[in-house]
Amino acid sequence: MAADYDVPAIRRTHDILRVLSDRPTPVKAAELAQACQLPKSTLYLLLDCLEQRRWIERRDGGYVIGLELMALGSAYLRHDGLQPAFRQAAGAFVARSNEVVQLAALDGFDVVYLAREDARRPVRLVSDLGLRLPAHACALGKALLASLRPEELAACLPGALPRVTDRTIADAAALHRELDSVRQTGLAQDQEEVATGLVCYAAYVGVTPLGKRVAVSTSIPTDRLDDAHRHEVMEGIRRVARDIALRVIPGG
Question: Domain IclR-ED, which positions (predicted)?
């Protein structure tokens, strides 16, 4: 394998965009210089270049992610038909169950949210598009981790499993037991492990022709989850995963 080749301008651009994507408000140039460890002269050249291409925009004395970058990023879903397949399957689920549906991919040991179909009633969610969560903490992550071969799982598991809430699994042996259950039932869940008062159910979709390992989930407040509704959404999210797989996964 060829050695990694580093292009400083690309690395610095990536660092700038990563800082902007992680912040909910505009970031001033001085903060970017400090966060990215860049000389101001270099930083301003990069900012000017990115702004000209609308990858970033100036807002309130700082910088935010720009419209062109969002448009470029949306192509990630279009390449292998994920977007229309997700919209059709998720729309049918929302029409039946009136609960949100989320699509996510596995990236290392992170879950990255790619798309969401909202229900007709509000729910407090942590699934903004592009958001990353540690895979062991959420139902989507467990569905994705359970699909890995043993050597792949071992390679991506970190040395310590951080807690997101006090109910997050933080023990590797307990996580492996839960992943065994996911493989047996075809359904992953988290019980307030990402957000207090929120239960999630997820099902694995598969690996797309372009190598995206994806899963779908639904998130429901505990105060409206009786036994009948729980059974309905568990079966429903399995159906969403199957419907998407039939459309975009080879042999799905």
Answer: 68-250
